[in-house]
Amino acid sequence: MFTGIVEDLGKVKAIKSGSHSMQLTLESKKIVEDIHLGDSIAVNGVCLTVTSFSTNTFTVDVMPETVKATNIQSLQMGHVVNLERAMPANGRFGGHFVSGHVDGTGVILRKRKVENAIYVDIGINEELSKYCVLKGSIAIDGISLTIFDVQPKKLTVSLIPLTFSETILGIKREHDVVNIENDMLGKYVIHHLDRKQESSPITIDFLRQNGF
Hints:
By secondary structure, the chain is α+β, with helices and mostly antiparallel strands. The chain is built from five helices and twelve strands. The strands form two sheets. Strands 1-2-5-4-3-6 form a six-stranded antiparallel β-barrel. A six-stranded antiparallel β-barrel has the order 7-8-11-10-9-12. The mean pLDDT is 92. Its EC number is 2.5.1.9.
């Protein structure tokens, strides 16, 4: 479990590509300060398992399904990635519940500065947008953010200057692909309602009509 509060910007030091899988070696002195074999690390919001580590690097395996479903497939030597270690049980919970199980990808459509905020418009498909709620939480490349506008094929998030400078959203450009994980609690609620609509009067429309 993660919080979506990025701890460090890592760098891709080595890539071994299989026919459909990958092995990545990433550099980050901060992350390896407290790391063990089998630890979960969020890399651009993707939960991956540490298979080896040194004084300033660690290695993870990426399965075929993960390569296919995320922007991990586009990483190259020298690329910078967001990194977060799993949340400790006694740690502060600064973001929202992030599982590291990416739901899909989006494309940056536009970035613009509005006073001290940076607005980022991201193109998504309708399947992802149905789980997006105005003022709700979403993880973009593993960053916990708040949705400020949502349309059938687009959402908008706002970044403070610190988030812009300390995560890869600050260096990504228009047309770049980002990983998206919808809010975990919302996904469970909608999944439950979709399965119960035929047998229960409690539907999404019912909840909307009654102020939920």
